[in-house]
Amino acid sequence: MIEITDIEKIYRLGGETIKALDKVTLSIKEGEFTSIMGPSGSGKSTLMNILGLLDRFDNGKYMLNGTDVTELSDDQLAGVRNKEIGFVFQSFNLMARMNVLENVMLPLVYAKVPADERKKRATEALEKVGLGDRLYHLTNEISGGQKQRVAIARSIVNRPSVLMADEPTGNLDSKTTEDIMRIFQDLNDEGTTIVMVTHEPEMAAYTKRIVHFRDGQITEDETVTPKQLSKAEVD
Amino acid sequence: MFIKENFKMALDSIFANKMRSFLTMLGIIIGIASVIAILAVGNGAAKEITGTFSDLGATTINLTANDSDDSNAALEQEDLVVLKDSIEEIQYISPNQQISGTASTEMDSRQAVVSYGTPDLQYLSQTMSSNLIHGRYFNQIDFDENNSVVVIDTDGAEALFGRTDVVGETLSVNITQTRLDLRIVGVVEGSFADMQGAFDADQIPLFMAMPQSTVGQQVPQLAGMNSVIIEVEDTEQIEPISNQIVRLLELRNDAVGENIYNARNFLQALDQVNNVLSLFINFIAAVAGIALLVGGIGVMNIMLVSVTERTREIGTRKALGATTKTILIQFLMEAVILSLIGGMIGLTLGILLSNVIASALNIVPIYTLGSVGLVLAFSTAVGVFFGIYPARKAAKLTPIDALRFE
Ligand SMILES: Nc1ncnc2c1ncn2[C@@H]1O[C@H](COP(=O)(O)OP(=O)(O)OP(=O)(O)O)[C@@H](O)[C@H]1O
Ligand SMILES: [Mg+2]
């Protein structure tokens, strides 16, 4: 589903150039739950932004579901992001002044889904993350963990082929982190492909594949048995 | 992107910063309020003035002869006869001149206002008094034969004779040091009765009306008629008839193109008033225009601030699938709605304001659908014009730059 070959990303600051990604080649298949691990500054976010079509790269090739993304216009990329990719950000990035339901409906608005259908699908997504009883709360009336669950509901509402999360639990405590990881595991069990960036091994331990990163290069790519969280604990 | 969602989003963000939004709208509010007030009051004033002119003289033509370098140019009695005979729309034609003098009998004397003209004088809408109480008005025979006859008013009769039925009595009047002995043929209603207060009771002037021919014969310096009032039947025809009168006089007196005769009607006077009025309206409109410009710049400024404040929001929206056009429309719509709300408040305020001004000026303000449309169009235009730059700025952000913004 995701095929990147010899991807390079170079930042130029004044006269200095920083190679944030140095000939990265990676393939992610449908149904995988992959974590990208590495120290700060190793290029994890840079890679995620490119995989998520938020940023362009300098060299290499990126095939997403058989399409060469370098050939797409900005608005076509927006369409692909809308339909194929779900984002979960470290800082949640919910819309203030909108309630929980409206936040989750937003990708459907951009997908031009009719209003009643939007509401139905957003409610379903929120029920899936255990927030079926918070539909009309404003985003400043819920906790951090609940915010991230709203963000997850928003990321899956358009039924994307891949969910991308950059340090999704970076702003959360350990108990809430477990809740989030359990939701990810459940979604993955139902077939959602997930790519997650983290610099914590404990987090990576919940995933099925760990890609180690250092200085813009992949140093190790291991398949592991994920640490299981029992479903019964979901509140 | 659906209009409804954009609309709700715009309202949300406008109401999230109520004070800021209000201050931003202030320029537009002031601009629109003044435009509405000016149009309503201006139109009301124009209508009022038109009405006044029509009431007073919609059928009146004021004919003058300019004899500055040619005394022959003054209007002759024969001119009046010819005009009345050849232009059938002319109902009445008469000079309406006034001169003051002193009227006296053996008993008493009094200030007098002497009005003179043709027998048509009694029918002119401008004439001071024509309601006969006793006797008759002076007639064509009196006029043709320069008879020394006079019509006076009841107040004068009371003052000089102690009674009103004074037909057949005589009195004399001194005009410009000439003494005229006159026989009273009629008595009309008191002319200055409704102007009491303006005079002491024993000083109310006597009103007299007499043939112009008699005055002209006895006081040669008053013989010339430089100004004549003409009444026509129908206000519709007033302009062509005015032109016809001038043409006829020019042909008759061999003065074509010499610009001696001048026939003025209320339309020209109205034109002048309207010119002054529109000058005034344009001036205020310019002021309102400046207010709108300032308001527009305010909108642009606040939208730029808003785009900066909401850069991360824009980034998130783009990540979720918003296209360049979607973001552009969102911010443009916000600017337009901001100015439209300003326009609506301005409209309301303008209506209130025009009512206050109008009632102070004692006129009725006139609102047209056009002026409401103008407000809507103008506010939208301001919103689009000043909103497009910030909206484009927001729309052109790349998703990653917008998301990374702090
Ligand atoms: N916009 C930018 N301009 C210049 N350099 C950048 C920019 N973004 C990232 N970099 C550089 O690229 C390198 C990789 O950064 P990146 O954000 O991908 O690291 P990371 O692995 O996500 O780190 P962290 O764990 O701290 O989030 C770093 O050296 C960083 O300084
Ligand atoms: Mg990072």
UniProtKB/TrEMBL annotation, chain A:
It comes from the Bacteria. Pfam families: ABC_tran (PF00005). InterPro entries: AAA+_ATPase, ABC_transporter-like_ATP-bd, ABC_transporter-like_CS, MacB-like_ATP-bd, P-loop_NTPase. One of its GO terms (biological process) is amino acid transport. Keywords: Amino-acid transport, ATP-binding, Nucleotide-binding, Transport. Gene3D superfamilies: P-loop containing nucleotide triphosphate hydrolases. One of its GO terms (cellular component) is membrane protein complex. Transmembrane segments: none annotated. The keyword Nucleotide-binding applies. Residues 2-234 form the ABC transporter domain. The keyword Nucleotide-binding applies. GO terms for molecular function: ATP binding; ATP hydrolysis activity; transmembrane transporter activity. PANTHER family: CELL DIVISION ATP-BINDING PROTEIN FTSE, LIPOPROTEIN-RELEASING SYSTEM ATP-BINDING PROTEIN LOLD. Belongs to the ABC transporter superfamily. This is Putative ABC transport system ATP-binding protein. It comes from Alkalibacterium gilvum.
From TrEMBL, chain B:
It is a multi-pass membrane protein. Pfam families: FtsX, MacB_PCD. The chain crosses the membrane at residues 21-42, 279-307, 328-354, 366-389. Keywords: Cell membrane, Membrane, Transmembrane, Transmembrane helix. Residues 286-399 form the ABC3 transporter permease C-terminal domain. GO terms for cellular component: plasma membrane. Its main location: membrane. Residues 21-247 form the MacB-like periplasmic core domain. InterPro entries: ABC3_permease_C, MacB_PCD, Macrolide_Exporter_MacB. It is found in: Cell membrane. GO terms for molecular function: transmembrane transporter activity. Belongs to the ABC-4 integral membrane protein family. This is Putative ABC transport system permease protein.
